[in-house]
Amino acid sequence: VTAYDISGRESDFSSELRYPVPFLITMPFSAGLNLISLPLEPLNPSISSLTEQLSSCLLNVMAYKNDTYTWEFYDPAQLDQSTLSTLEPAKGYWVEMTCPGEMTVVGNRTTNPITLIPGLNLVGYNSVRPLPVSQALASIANKYTTVWGYKDDQWTFYDPADQTGSTLQVLTPGSGYWIEGTEETTWVLP
User: Most C-beta atoms within 10 A of its C-beta, which of 6, 103, 160, 182?
Assistant: First the structure.
């Protein structure tokens, strides 16, 4: 960009500005409980905006705060009592639906590290591509005992001591997970 003054003199070019093109991901939901996460940093993190497409089927959204061992919730029928107002990547959420639906998330990729504490951590998977569990969790190897996933009313698990017997083999974008940490650590995706 250049500018002209009232005498018609042109300025030097401005500095180059780069704008990352946002990604778009559509997340499917089944009737019942869904354990999800946002694989993107949403352009608009408002829970009411993100779940607008689900409104006819959405019962509630719950989030577990790992650091305080408390639950937050969003209930579209009781907005004045809801304690959850935004959805963020790196966090896991339980979404309860009365019927199947889809949610479209528009946002930017994020690689923010996730702090894990000893005990159970409800976390999100900050990636737009699936990875084998051992590869996705390489930065916290030997600092967790088990990972649990939940999809289509079924629990799956990953035990690093018994990888072949584990029913969870791949972490997928849009899914949330429970990770049993053995110490405080920081999870950084590869």
Answer: 103
Question: On the CB side of 124, how many CA atoms lie within 13 Å of its CA?
Answer: 26
Backbone φ and ψ for 15, nearest 5 degrees, come out as -65, 150
Rounded alpha-carbon distances, angstroms, from residue 97 to 51, 83, 125, 183? 11, 19, 21, 34
Q: Model's pTM, two decimal places? A: 0.85
Q: Mapping DSSP to helix (H, G, I), strand (E, B) and coil, where does residue 190 land?
A: coil
User: Which structure tokens are listed for 1?
Assistant: 């960009």
Which stretches of 5-54 are DSSP H helices? 47-50
User: Which residues does 18 contact at the CB level (< 8 Å), separation at least 6?
Assistant: none
**Can you tell me the distance from the alpha carbon of 25 to that of 16, in angstroms, rounded to the nearest whole number?**
29
Residue with tokens 């289509």: 152
CB-CB contact of 145 with 158 (8 Å): no
* Residue 162 parent element (H or E): none
Q: What is the spatial distance between Cα 85 and Cα 97, in angstroms, rounded to a whole number?
A: 18
CB 100 within 8 A of CB 28: yes
Q: Cβ(110)–Cβ(89) under 8 Å?
A: yes
Name residue 117's beta-bridge partners: none
Burial class (CB in 10 A: 0-12, 13-18, 19+), 120: middle
Which residue do the tokens 């035990």 mark? 159
